[in-house]
Design a protein that fits this description.
The chain is about 65% helix and about 10% strand. It contains ten helices and four strands. The chain has a four-stranded antiparallel beta sheet. The longest helix is centred in the middle third of the chain and has 26 residues.
Length: about 280
Amino acid sequence: MKNKIKEYLLINFGLLLVAVPIYFILAPNSLAPGGISGLAIIINHFLPKVPVGALMMAIDLVLFIIGVIFIGFGFGAKTIYSSFTLSGMVIILQKINPVPKPFSHDILTQLIFGTCMSAVGMAIVFQQNACTGGTDIIAKILNKYFHINLGKGVLICDIGIAIFSGVIFGIESAMYGVLGVLFSGITIDKVIQSLTINKEVVIISNRSVQIKQYVVSEIERGATIYVAKGAFTNEEKEVIRTIVTKKEFSKLRKYIKTVDENAFITVNHIHETFGEGFLNIR
């Protein structure tokens, strides 16, 4: 139950990081760097009395119906929740501050700041096995019928929306939009990598019994034990191999220092770890 609460708190926090730049930065500057939010900003130009958040919700609803027709009800509850919660947050922000104005005339700085903030939020949502829907559904349809890779499908949709914004808001807006799409993709990847990175630790020590006991009982991680023979000493020793988080590695290193300062330790960065205690392979 605690894990579920934590999961949805993180999803909501991530969605808030996405909603704030949509309403306060992208919409006031007529920037549409892809996604349903970008499409809603374009439609809002023709229907200014309809809030961007309401348009996002309507588009999401239409896309979910199309998705059910073409690919079946293949959406997770978290994705449906995230899609409509994001739209709801934008609507609430409009209630709080009905007419947002651009923070400055420097559009590029605002684009970079807004894209970074939104990308961090989306990365947090993705980490909880959810997504914000929208163009993901179109990408799934393209994948099913035209065998286009999902990542490429999303990129095609987002760049298409950004280019289309140029027809409405001018070529400068399209250029900023495409730049935002590319920058967002790179930032999301970097943030996800930093959130998922773990450490593979290999330890050779004369105190292997105490160390493996510490790994299992104190850090509560599994370990693989195998015997290796040293080339110089011809002596056989136990080798402990385990995968831990950055925080856990800090604790493990401090403990090893107290029991065996001469321990031989190698550390590798692991970008993704699936299995018990780490990411779900699904």
